[in-house]
């Protein structure tokens, strides 16, 4: 078991994940571009260092959790990046959601200095990160996964090895495509219920016992009813994820019409200033098109 774990990126997800690793008695160091997250994990004994390189030097396993493909490249290979501090035998687990092809490239670059890499993007949102109940899709070598498994078990309840490096990101793209359709479907259903004068809470309760049941219906329909979208998973981040999925689809010759619609809806929301709303804010657009308040 590798007791020394480093976290690079302490956003909504990363800070909660680092906290759970610390609670599981791992020796945790961390770095973030801004220092505002320190107070959340300082009481748990997490040591904040000055660069990703310092985190890598102090760790056996380094977990990166940042926003997009260029951000991962920067924290891995930029000045004072992970690669500058990692020793031979270090294991990097990128839990961001990024391009599968870029993931394979990053792994090949790290391998040149005998640093292994897994991709382990997650599903479960900020709630799952806080509760340690994330689903983790892992691409890479099975032996590397077994090495990382103890710390991953402190972060999630479902850990699935889905294939070689980059496969985790491909599965995450599938996850985001399915979520796009689910969010749009639930938003349309809630708006239809509102327009029909139904008791939305009663409707959700009734539907939750049947085939329409979903995590989105249970956890996000209330936000759609109230037209209030506190942060869970940002519209901007899901739009970024759909861009990855649509890029994959273009390469593979797959048609994703619902995902393309969702991306257009989310682009409109971003243009209206709703970048940081939870992605359930797709209901804003459905409500506006239906004559409800925008």
Strand adjacency order, main sheet: 3-2-1-4-5-6
Give me the Rg, rounded.
20 Å
Task: Give the SSE order as H and E letters.
Answer: EHEHEHEHHEHEEHEHEHHHHHH
Distance, first to last CA: 52 Å
Could you give a short account of the major beta sheet? Answer: 6 strands, parallel
Share of helix among residues?
40-55%
Q: Strand-residue fraction?
A: 5-15%
Overall description:
By secondary structure, the protein is of the alpha/beta class. 53% of the residues lie in helices and 14% in strands. The chain contains 14 helices and 9 strands. The protein has helices at 12-23, 38-42, 52-57, 69-77, 82-85, 100-111, 125-131, 142-153, 167-195, 200-207, 215-226, 235-252, 257-271, 282-289, and strands at 4-8, 27-31, 47-48, 61-64, 91-94, 116-119, 122-123, 134-139, 156-163. The strands form 2 sheets. The protein has a 6-stranded parallel sheet with strand order 3-2-1-4-5-6, with helices on both faces. Helix 9 (167-195) crosses helix 13. The protein is globular and about 65 Å long. The model has no long low-confidence stretch (mean pLDDT 95).
Q: In a nutshell, what does this entry contain?
A:
The protein has helices at 12-23, 38-42, 52-57, 69-77, 82-85, 100-111, 125-131, 142-153, 167-195, 200-207, 215-226, 235-252, 257-271, 282-289, and strands at 4-8, 27-31, 47-48, 61-64, 91-94, 116-119, 122-123, 134-139, 156-163. The chain has 294 residues and is α/β, with parallel strands linked by helices.
């Amino acid at each position: 078991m590798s007791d020394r774990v480093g976290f690079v990126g302490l956003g909504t997800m990363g800070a909660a994940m680092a906290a759970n690793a610390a609670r599981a008695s791992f020796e945790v160091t961390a770095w973030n571009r801004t220092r505002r997250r320190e107070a959340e994990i300082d009481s748990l004994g997490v040591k904040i260092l000055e660069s990703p390189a310092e985190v890598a030097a102090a760790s056996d396993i380094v977990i990166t959790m940042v926003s997009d493909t260029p951000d991962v490249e920067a924290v891995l290979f930029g000045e004072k990046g992970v690669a500058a501090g990692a020793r031979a035998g270090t294991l990097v687990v990128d839990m961001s959601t990024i391009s599968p092809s870029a993931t394979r490239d990053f792994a090949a670059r790290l391998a040149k200095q005998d640093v292994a890499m897994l991709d382990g993007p997650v599903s479960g949102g900020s709630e799952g990160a806080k509760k340690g109940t994330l689903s983790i899709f892992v691409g890479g070598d099975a032996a590397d996964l077994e090495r990382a498994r103890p710390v991953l078990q402190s972060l999630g309840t479902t850990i699935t090895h889905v294939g070689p490096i980059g496969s985790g990101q491909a599965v995450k793209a599938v996850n985001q495509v399915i979520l796009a359709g689910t969010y749009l479907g639930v938003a349309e259903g809630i708006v239809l219920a509102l327009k029909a004068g139904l008791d939305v809470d009663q409707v959700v309760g009734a539907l939750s016992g049947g085939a329409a049941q979903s995590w989105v219906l249970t956890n996000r329909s209330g936000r759609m009813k109230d037209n209030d979208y506190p942060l869970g998973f940002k519209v901007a981040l899901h739009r970024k994820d759909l861009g990855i999925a649509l890029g994959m689809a273009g390469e593979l010759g797959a048609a994703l019409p619902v995902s393309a619609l969702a991306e257009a809806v989310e682009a409109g929301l971003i243009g209206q200033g709703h970048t940081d709303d939870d992605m359930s804010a797709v209901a804003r657009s459905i409500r506006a098109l239906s004559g409800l308040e925008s």
